[in-house]
Amino acid sequence: NAGVMQNPRHLVRRRGQEARLRCSPVKGHSHVYWYRQLPEEGLKFMVYLQKENIIDESGMPKERFSAEFPKEGPSILRIQQVVRGDSAAYFCASSPVDRVSGEQFFGPGTRLTVL
Amino acid sequence: AQTVTQSQPEMSVQEAETVTLSCTYDTSENNYYLFWYKQPPSRQMILVIRQEAYKQQNATENRFSVNFQKAAKSFSLKISDSQLGDTAMYFCAFMNLLPTTSGTYKYIFGTGTRLKVLA
């Protein structure tokens, strides 16, 4: 009964490199959400995806950030040309199709450090 | 736009005592969910308790209960018989029950309250 899995747990990148964060939702969940948590702050919504579709990317920075949730495989959050301000914890959450309970199940997060 | 406010950045409580964390929110919607999540030092987000806005009865989960005041848009969390393991960040979150026009069910989080339980 695996929960949401994220990898890597910790990622260190130098300025200008690319960061690729992976999220495998709970088995059977087809809705994935990405949130960003800056130090000493709450989680901020970034993007909501269903299989092969981006439903809402209103919280995603317009440049350098992209997300996908392919038909097969994990959801990927990609940050190109990282800057120090991208240092944060990135959380993925998933929910089932019916969403009756409203609950989103969170992964352990990926902590990105940009040097 | 919905907002969630947690006005207590830090709180402390003696072990076995009771503590209340406050949360207020702003929305024009009538149907929504409210949540309290706990984030211990491991950073894992753990659901503590959930409240559906259409239910008048306050939710309870063992030592955790809420005081949901819909008219006042207030959603406080009471922790009874506090334990050392309750030490964590606590986040209040809001979610529309019906999706916005974009079809999203995103959570809106408050900035959190850091709770320390003292031995």
Polypeptide structure, described:
The complex is a heterodimer of chains A (115) and B (119). By secondary structure, chain A is mainly beta. Chain A is 0% helix and 49% strand. Chain A contains no helices and 11 strands. The mean pLDDT of chain A is 92. By secondary structure, chain B is mostly beta strands. Chain B is built from no helices and 12 strands. In chain B, the strands form 3 sheets. In chain B, strands 2, 5, 6, 10, 11 and 12 form a 6-stranded mixed sheet that branches. A 4-stranded antiparallel sheet of chain B has the order 3-9-8-7, with no helix packed on it. In chain B, a hairpin with a 4-residue loop joins strand 8 and strand 9. The interface between A and B is medium-sized, with 26 and 24 residues.
Helix content of chain A: under 10%
Largest interface: A-B, 26 and 24 residues
Number of helices of chain A: 0
Helix and strand succession of chain B?
EEEEEEEEEEEE
Q: If you average the pLDDT of chain B, what whole number results?
A: 92
Instruction: Give the N-to-C terminal Cα separation of chain B.
Output: 41 Å
Main pleated sheet of chain B: 6 strands, mixed
Number of strands of chain B: 12
Q: Which helices and strands occur, and which strands form pairs?
A:
The complex is a heterodimer of chains A (115) and B (119).
Chain A: E1 5-7, E2 10-13, E3 19-24, E4 31-37, E5 43-50, E6 53-56, E7 65-68, E8 75-79, E9 88-95, E10 105-106, E11 110-114
Parallel strand pairs in A: 2-11
Antiparallel strand pairs in A: 1-3, 3-8, 4-5, 4-9, 5-6, 7-8, 9-10, 9-11
Chain B: E1 3-5, E2 10-14, E3 19-21, E4 24-26, E5 32-39, E6 46-52, E7 60-61, E8 64-69, E9 74-79, E10 88-96, E11 108-109, E12 113-118
Parallel strand pairs in B: 2-12
Antiparallel strand pairs in B: 1-4, 3-9, 5-6, 5-10, 7-8, 8-9, 10-11, 10-12
